[in-house]
Design a protein that fits this description.
The structure holds two protein chains of two kinds. Chain A is α/β, with parallel strands linked by helices. Chain A is built from nine helices and ten strands. By secondary structure, chain B is of the alpha+beta class. The chains are: A alpha/beta, B alpha+beta. Bound molecules: adenosine-5'-triphosphate and magnesium ion.
Amino acid sequence: MNQYIEQSNIAVDAKNVSHAYNRATQARNIVTDLNLHIEKGETVAVVGRSGSGKSTLLNIIGGLEPLQQGEVHVLGKSLNGLTDSQRTALRRDHIGFIYQAFNLIPTLSVADNITLPLALKGVNTAQRQQTLEPLLEAVGLDGRGDDYPDVLSGGEQQRVAIARALIHKPALVLADEPTGNLDAQSGRQILSLLENLVSEHNSSLILVTHSLEVAGIADRTMIMTNGSLEPAQVSHLNGTLAW
Amino acid sequence: MVTHILLRSSLTFYRQHPLQLLSSIIGIVLGVCIVTAVWITNSSSKRAFALSTEALYGRTTHHIVGAQGVDQAFYAQLRKQYPNLLMSPVIEGHVLLDNEVFSLIGIDPFAESAFARLTNQADTNSINNLATNGLVMSAESAQRLNLNATDTITVKTANDFIDVPLIGKLNSANPAARSGLLVGDISLVQNILQRGRHIDRIDMILNDEQTLLIQEALPTTLKLNNAASRHETMLAMTRGFQINLTAMSLLSLLVGAFLIHNTMSFTVLQRRELYAVKRTLGINSRSLFISILIEAVLISLVGSIIGVLLGLSLSQQLIKLTTQTINDLYFVLHVQQVWFTPGLFFGGIVLGVGASVIAASLSAMDAAKTNPVQAQQRSATEAQTRKILPMLAYLGVVIMLFGLALATTPTQSLLLGFISLMLVIVGYGLLIPVISFHASRLLKQSLAGISPMLSMAAGSIERNISRTGLAIAALTVAVSSTFGVDVMIGSFRSSVDNWLGDTLQSDVYVSVPAAVSTRADGALDNSVLNAIKHNGDIASISTGLKLKTRTALGEFDTLALSPHENKPIGINILDDNRDAVWQNFTTTESVLISEPLATKYGLKSGSALSIFTELKGDVTFSVAGIVRDYASSHGQITMHRSTHNRYWSNRSVSSIGILFKNNVNAIDASNRLREQITGTNQALRIQQNSEIHADSLAVFDRTFEVTRVLRWLTVGVAFVGIFSALLALNLERAREFAVLRATGFSRRQLLVLISSQTLWMGVLAGCLAIPLGWAMSEILIHIINVRSFGWSMQSFIPSGTVQSTFVLSCTAALFAGLYPAWRLSQSKIARQLRDE
Ligand SMILES: Nc1ncnc2c1ncn2[C@@H]1O[C@H](COP(=O)(O)OP(=O)(O)OP(=O)(O)O)[C@@H](O)[C@H]1O
Ligand SMILES: [Mg+2]
């Protein structure tokens, strides 16, 4: 599988994807007939109203939501054909998640949270420590490795989440509003950090955001409306981003 | 109003966690069920005593008894002398009918009417019309055995099978008289029981003046006793047994209360963050505290009501088991009905609700007083817990030492014994979290290089110690109590086993089969005695006669013994100077008493014991020594046959122990003996010592059947406790596990992670349970048992107990962890990640 993924130049290829949540009696379509194509190394920003289904889309691509309709290829692999444990392995080895709600593990220290993906891969303690040091420095959390998540500020937690998503050098990073909780200054810092780390490994990045400035770092920007994605027009991007 | 909102919030919490609610309730149900079942059982058998006393004694105030019954001629003379006094002669015995024990009562219908026994006013007829040619049977028994009022029945007595016609049925308002009873005219019953011209007692209804009069008129060989004293004697006999039963139920309650406490703390702990949010929203700590208490009351009320009702049905089983034991060991008792009073009902409920409220109030206090900002931070809770762990441990050590000190104070108080047992358990329980914490940390570090996942499993126990510590403590206490009880029963059994080996020194025992296992009072025929005396295989014989004696301390089984070659063979003297004791016993006016008798009444070698004898009335004997005897917890007296013969006229023998010569094969010799004496016209019981040994152990095992049942129920309580703890613990971390899944943990890995975590908790609890269980067994054996039965014994850990305790702990943990593990591995990751 690894080889196959190395060879593929397409990071994400989603065709005619639809997704509905069952609400009491009737199903509610959140995603309808969505198409998305992302090349290797490309950064795509996804914008859209709150509740429009952006997080749902990331979850589908990451294999966290079952695929209901359509076809999704991630790093050259069709999600339809993967078993649960194959999807799990794909995430473990090649995908980094940055969640909207940071989803740090409250009972693991900052260091343990960040190195979790390495631990899952079976990397030993010494090597984990080695990889951790520069990354901690990069996200500006030098010396905070032994703290627990709930004493960190929102921005600090977000930085831990980013470090965790990137520590295993994933080919695809799915970031759900990584700067949502930060002041402009810190947001910019985090963003350039993310940008650098991604380009360093030639990773692809899907970046869900409400901010024009954030979307600015992307190669292109897509807007989520009525359950599907279309390229954002200049008119959308002008003004207040009032979606 | 605020409370109202808080309670609604609690309700939602439990609606979202139905299994947790269920297990909290089940924990309380089981705890309450066990205790009330034992209460009901004990009160039912006490009630049965009371009813049967009432049935057999009616309005009797006093009775005249002799050391060997009362001569009928004396009754006739007394009657003539005091024609105006109310008196009535009685014989009581037991017979078997269809292998069922019946009490057979002989009365004089003409003397009866004033006594109003056996019947209520309405049908004194059946008693008044008693003819001398037949028996009246209690109506319910007759119906059950499908007998008509005119059938002939065959009853089995100590010596014979006898056919007697039925001439009527006995209806009575008193349930004790409705079953298990045969009544006949005194002369007929004298014939059936072969009592010659003796009656058991003369019942009387006397006022104070008449009492004095009769006391004056009695010869020294007869006594005028208060009717109540006999009832007390019977109660005293089973006291040890009932106390032990209560003890076992209290142990279950203790474990139950501990688990209830854990469950309650858990549900509170789990909502610490939630409570903190509420506190920041302006809800004061008082309303929070009250709402938690109300919640505890509601939950435990439901649990307790169900528990009491289940206890009622469990008690029916326990009554069967305990009645069997009482009949095996003490006397014949028919428990006709379950005695269930409002007092018992409310007692059970108060107990369950009380334990829960006390448990909940501790954690409610904690939840209400913690700083809301801190409580919102999970790591702060854990850090706080870690900080107080050593303090808890020191406190635990102090409590434990205090408990041990209390255990060793010289007192006979059972209550203090229990308090010390409880202190040891609680103290040890406080040590468990700190030990678990360090053990898990150690394991985490040592596994880090080998398997990161297993290391993670151990690490999460360490990091969640506020929760995992509680769960491990609960499991430890529960498992250790089964270990403690196992070791106690095992020690008891091995002591009895050794004692039987020491005591049963004869090769073969010959006796008259007793109608009822508690009595072996039939006399052996002279022809049998002669046959045995002339048998060439026999080296020596010992003979025994069982009788009941009244002493200043109560009524006791007494053995008049003529030992093998007049040596202490098969007699287990506990005193150091055994030769001197034996010397005294064989040559002076002295007796040997059993250990329970000595312990209970503080008798030592050299103490005086006044015994009411047949020929010389009250005589003071000295205690020659104390012997080990596990046959009766009430106490037993052994008297040399020559001593007996100076004070009693009976020269018969009820059992013979035979030692064969060294050069003959014991099996062959006993077969020859069997052939030789079965020719005589008496039904005999000829038993190898190994048979008696096995039979006695079977009785022992039956006695502890109840304890075993209670023990398994305790395991049930424990399982529910650990299940709910693990369920809560794991579901609380659902989101954490979802993150793991999203980051690349497969379902199987998650299953393995959670299972190895719970297994490790089981392993820890198993290891920790063994020292605690051992301490509990030591207290049970050397303090509780001695104080309730008066028996001393050697501790003995039955082989496999340690292993099975360990396996039990691991299995319980694993099973309890299985469901939450499975559920979590199946749950939707995306959904869990959204949960805030
Ligand atoms: N498990 C679920 N069951 C039912 N409805 C759901 C579930 N998960 C999400 N939804 C609904 O689906 C819609 C899309 O949710 P999603 O989280 O994808 O939106 P979003 O675009 O990420 O919004 P935001 O910008 O606020 O994060 C929302 O209306 C949400 O309520
Ligand atoms: Mg979202």
